[in-house]
Design goal:
Layout (H helix, E strand, L loop, with lengths): L12 H20 L3 H4 L10 H20 L13 H4 L4 H12 L4 H18 L5 E2 L6 E2 H23 L7 H18 L5 E5 L3 E5 L13 E4 L1 H8 L5 H6 L3 E4 L14
Parallel strand pairs: 3-5
Antiparallel strand pairs: 1-2, 3-4, 5-6
């Protein structure tokens, strides 16, 4: 008999809104202090410089505000947990739209404008509002959870590229970790491997003998930031295992074929 389907994870909408707003503010504060030399550094993301990456983060807030200003869609099509799988197909389109929207203004001005627009639209719209999006129509509540992924991943990108120490909100880190862990369970359903990302997430995945009690025979464990880097393609599986940032025990505890989840 197949295991019962688990209910989708729920998130506290108020906490997620606060986390998104606070994380964007952390990045905005750091970007205002970047020197021309830092802005010219490579971001580690293709041909993007640190300045390009910073502008893209401003666009994350600006584009959400623009989506909320458009007429709503009728029905949500895409749940948050399936969002990571849809990102790769739109990467080029998003990058082009960001350049067109944000070109010609200094970064501090971009952040001030985007932050103000985001705050205004969030205050005016409930979580049930359905956004008409390229990636698929989503409720605002679900879309905000995906914004924690974008903001946490790119905050980490900025920190590593420009030797910064931008803080990451605990609530944003938790939501990002949980969403990506749940996405793994959707991509490879099953109960033969337990993936632990303390203190935020534990999921079971991959078809095979199902664990019911005691210590699971196949266990993967890592910290939240390493998990996020693995899931977003910033770190490779072998690299993380070799550096002891991931422990994997059991013959099925190899996630290399399933990662990254998004790019």
């Amino acid at each position: 008999m197949p295991p019962a389907r688990k209910k989708p994870r729920t998130y506290d909408p108020a906490k997620i809104r606060t986390a998104v707003t606070a994380q964007f503010a952390h990045v905005a504060e750091a970007v205002r202090e970047l020197s021309p030399e830092q802005l010219a550094l490579p971001s580690g993301l293709g041909e993007w410089s640190v300045a390009d990456l910073a502008a893209h983060i401003a666009w994350i807030a600006d584009s959400m505000a623009a989506g909320l200003a458009r007429p709503p869609a009728a029905v949500a099509e895409l749940p948050a947990v399936e969002w990571p799988f849809a990102t790769a197909s739109l990467a080029g389109k998003i990058s082009e739209a960001a350049r067109e929207t944000l070109s010609g203004a200094p970064l501090p001005e971009l952040y001030e404008r985007a932050g103000a627009r985001m705050a205004e639209e969030l205050a005016a719209n409930p979580g049930s509002r359905v956004l008409d999006l390229w990636i698929g129509d989503m409720t605002l509540a679900d879309f905000l959870v995906t914004r924690t992924v974008e903001l946490v991943v790119h905050t980490d990108d900025l920190n590593r590229a420009a030797a910064l120490d931008i803080p990451i909100e605990r609530q944003a880190l938790a939501a990002c970790t949980r969403l990506l862990a749940d996405a793994l369970a959707v991509k490879a359903p099953g109960g033969s491997v337990e993936v632990r990302v303390p203190p935020f997430a534990v999921v079971q995945c991959i078809e095979g003998p199902r664990h019911t009690r005691g210590t699971p025979p196949n266990v993967v464990e890592t910290d939240p930031l390493t998990w996020i880097r693995l899931a977003s393609g910033r770190t490779g599986w072998a690299e993380a295992v070799d550096a002891a940032r991931v422990t994997a025990s059991g013959e099925r505890a190899d996630l290399s074929a399933l990662l990254p989840l998004m790019s």
